[in-house]
Amino acid sequence: MRKLFEHKIIRITIIVILAVMAAVSVYQGIRNALVFSQDFQWDAAKSLFLRVDPYDVSMGKTDALSQDLQAFYDYYDSIDAPQRMEANQFPSLLMLLFPYTFLTQDTARIAWLITNLLCTAGIIVLLRKTFLRETDRFVFYVLVLLMLAGTPYRNQLGVGQHTLFSLFFFLLAVWLLEKKGGSIPAILCLAVSYFKYTLTGVLAIYLIYKKKWKELFCSVGIHIVLTGIAAISLQESFANMLIKPLKVSSALISEGGLDFGTLIGGSIAFIPAFLVMAGLLVLALKADTNGDGMLIAVLLLWSLIILYHRTYDFFALVLVAGAFAGNDQWKLKGTPEGKVTVFFYGLVLFMVFFVLRLFNEADWIRIVTGTVYYGYTIWMTILFIRYYLRNKEYDQNGNGK
Predict the structure, then answer these.
(1) Nearest 5°: CA angle at 168, between 189 and 366?
(2) Are 323 and 301 in contact (CB under 8 A)?
(3) d(CA 288, CA 382)
(4) Longest dimension (CA), the chain
(5) CA–CA separation, 351 and 345 (whole Å)
(6) How many CA atoms lie within 13 A of 367 on its CB side?
(7) What digits encode the pLDDT tens for the residues 43-93?
């Protein structure tokens, strides 16, 4: 079977088929984004810019709307997709959208689509420069095309979500941290990447693993300052600028895809989420520094389920492939265990990218997909822990310590 996939004609055929699927998917995503992009949160950013508390509007405590905002909601009413403000982002994050609020909502929607397309291109380039730099070229092309062809990416683009934006800046920060003099630009990129903090907030544990304490604390410090500015602007307490967006977002906790909130329901889901986060922090602090790819894979897998995520965020699963690149030290390559791990990963991608949509994300298929996904996540975590223990017992030459 392996020799079959190494045949040049077979490889070209696979790439052509996937390229056509990807092109159709991206085209449909663009069409949807031009009409919808309802998750962009232009309305919340515009409200904050106008010094009208977007969190009070979201919670129905005030109905003060500018003419621009009323036009925004009238547009969605006209296409039978009525919207209401859901300002579930912290004010320091909404401020990142301020440049788009100088545009009309129609123009801003187009500008955001262009931003997401540019971020897509950037993600592909940066994956090759960071965690997938050692991935076989054919495999890399297949992964990228699968990502673009999959339902999660198409929906991510169509609803105007922020994960493409955030993941791009996170990968850019990782790449900059490897460059001399890249610390300050990396800090700025990290600060921007927190826009989708339910994803990149977990991935930021990677910086702890890399002992990049200055960059981590400074990137968070930027948001502390911006939150203080927002509090002054809205004449609110600093605490309320943290509490209010959490109140808005808590209403969505049971509306995700495969995450703890959807599985367990209610605020009790934060308990296992906290325990997993604590465990990941311990692993990052104690892990050997030779396992970048495996750690980022484990962080990414957990990030998509411990906090609220709809399945459109799961396009980021391509990052998991970094665990299989240049991983001789994991003792997996060519072993039955390694083959099972790679097959399991392919199954997860196939089910999340295509099968869920095929059955319209019915409850039963989400249960089946979730079972496979959770099993794979636990399996990868076990492998990571085993690798850490192995490194504690053996030096790099395989000699006992």
Answers:
(1) 130
(2) no
(3) 15
(4) 72
(5) 10
(6) 4
(7) 999 999 999 999 999 998 877 677 889 899 999 999 999 999 999 999 999
